[in-house]
Amino acid sequence: MTHIVSDSCIRCKYTDCVDVCPVDCFREGPNMLVIDPDECIDCAVCIPECPVNAIYAEEDVPADQIAFIKLNVELSRAEGWKSITKRKDALPDAEEWKDKTGKLSELIR
Fold first, then answer.
1. What is the pLDDT of residue 103?
2. What pLDDT score was predicted for residue 58?
3. Got the DSSP string for 9-60?
4. Cα–Cα dist 101/79, whole Å
5. Lower CB density within 10 Å: C or N end of the chain?
6. How far apart are CA 97 and CA 80, in angstroms?
7. Measured between alpha carbons, how far is 17 from 43 in angstroms, rounded to an integer?
8. What is the mean pLDDT of each run of 10 residues along the chain (109 residues)?
9. Cα–Cα distance between 85 and 82 in angstroms, integer?
């Protein structure tokens, strides 16, 4: 099992989670983070760090977020999605987007 980043991260990209990850499994895209399932050790320390509750253990992913399991795998291997190991500022309009749902159409690959 692994952990995944869900819809809530899109257009926010808070990076509090990367500071606590002991194995550097987060990958950064233009407006979202994902978790590389080959690197994640299922420690769960990232879950409480996410200010928008975007991180789930794979077995706890809500039904409406199941597609993000495959999406994390795909994007963690995508060209341009590099490892991120240090916290950065969230996106400039993160506060505006943090409580919105159904943001998959906003994802920039």
1. 98
2. 95
3. GTTT---HHHHH-SS--EEE-SS-EEE-TTT-----TTGGG-TT--EEEGGG
4. 27
5. N
6. 24
7. 12
8. 95 98 97 98 98 97 97 98 97 97 97
9. 10
> How many residues make up the chain in this entry?
109
pLDDT of residue 63: 97
Note the pLDDT of residue 17: 98
If one counts every other C-beta atom within 10 angstroms of the C-beta of residue 1, the result is: 9
Q: Does domain 3-84 have CATH number 3.40.47.10?
A: no
pTM: 0.96
**Contact (CB, 8 A) for 69 and 34:** no
Tokens in use for 14?
């808070």
